[in-house]
Specification:
9 strands, about 350 residues, about 35% helix, Arginase, Chain A, 9-stranded mixed beta sheet, alpha/beta, globular
Length: about 350
């Protein structure tokens, strides 16, 4: 069975502004490079619609949604409303697709809930993963919480055992705090300690199904293998037997991302996906953070390859190498990032 790649072209050319970390075309880069690498035999590319106001209001406050949409249309917000809804800030600026971009991400995950009830077991939605947004305000680059909306819809259509696993360098507070008291949702987050929004306490709450694991600076692949096999991590997931697994794969947890200090390779993400595939669960893989264009692109392409059981070439084609070289950013890439998708060395294959 093929993997569904959910996509909306609103992401093409969309960014938060020149001074913002989200200036790179992460989602369209993944889409375009996957086409160059000829994923078509393993992947169905599906254009998703934007989530409607009614669909978004299942989680978000109606007044907030009205202001967010109106602010996009007018490209203006009053100081009072900006303060109330945390909009027009350095983190959450006003830009021309600020509502539609996030409505598309939410629309993708709403479509994912329909697809896993019918045709597909594996879904890839790199534009989704906005785990900081709150019900009544934007937060941490996230304007609409597509993940929370998705979980609520999954519950509505009958799923009662949902795993949300978040590898982003930043604590997924918008999702985890909302579902903290919902025993039908197991949330697990690995995130760098002392990094905004600064959740520094290890938690293993079996009653509330909450596992939070702050990571030290320099946390690497060797550390991850040891951590993953602790009783509170993978064995706990196996015992839980989730029906649906949502993976937020923010690439800012990887080495060489400017906004964190973790030293994971992209093999760590793939290790997680492989282990999740051993379970008899539906799987939805999302994006999230990730602010180095080559690190993020290679990680998400690798995630898609493993999810879709696509064998990556040992040597990239000239067209693929050219695509990687043509990515424009303020820093120069390492040569390895231009010639291969998989980070070396890969200790997970020992």
């Amino acid at each position: 069975m093929k993997t569904a790649f959910l996509y909306n072209d609103i992401f093409r050319g969309s960014d938060y502004g020149k001074k913002h970390p989200v200036t790179i075309n992460r989602v369209t880069n993944v889409y375009d490079l996957s086409k160059i690498l000829d994923f078509d035999k393993n992947v169905d590319y599906i254009n998703n619609d934007l989530a409607t106001i009614d669909e978004l209001s299942k989680f978000h406050d109606a007044d907030y949604l009205h202001v967010l949409k109106s602010t996009e249309e007018k490209q203006f917000i009053t100081k009072e409303l900006a303060k109330k809804y945390n909009l027009g800030t350095a983190d959450n600026p006003i830009f021309k697709e600020m509502f539609r971009r996030h409505a598309a991400a939410a629309g993708a995950l709403l479509l994912a809930t329909k697809l896993i009830k019918s045709k597909y077991n594996r879904i890839f939605s790199p534009g989704s993963g906005a785990h900081h947004a709150k019900q009544k305000k934007a937060s941490g680059f996230c304007y609409l919480n597509d993940i929370a909306i998705c979980i609520l819809e999954l519950q509505r259509v009958g799923f009662s055992k949902i795993l949300y696993l978040d590898m982003d360098a930043h604590y997924g507070d918008g999702v985890i705090e909302y579902f903290r008291d919902d025993s039908k949702v197991l949330t697990i987050s690995t995130h760098q300690e002392n990094l905004w929004p600064k959740h520094n306490i290890f938690e293993f709450d079996k009653k509330g199904k909450v596992v939070n694991i702050p990571l030290k600076k320099g946390f690497n692949d060797e550390d991850f293998i040891e951590l993953f096999n602790e009783d509170f991590f993978y064995p706990y997931i196996v015992d839980y037997r989730p029906e649906v697994i949502l993976l937020q794969m923010g690439a800012d947890c990887l080495q060489f991302d400017k906004y964190s200090d973790l030293n994971l390779s992209n093999n760590s993400m793939v290790y997680v996906i492989k282990k999740m595939k051993e379970l008899e669960s539906k799987i939805v893989v999302m994006g999230g953070g990730g602010y180095n264009p080559w690190i993020t692109l290679r990680a998400w392409i690798y995630n898609l390859a493993i999810l879709a059981e696509f064998e990556l070439p040992k040597s990239l084609s000239q067209e693929a190498k050219k695509f990687l070289r043509n990515i424009e950013w303020k820093e120069e890439p390492k040569e390895q990032w231009l010639n291969t998708i998989i980070d070396k060395p890969n200790i997970f294959e020992r």
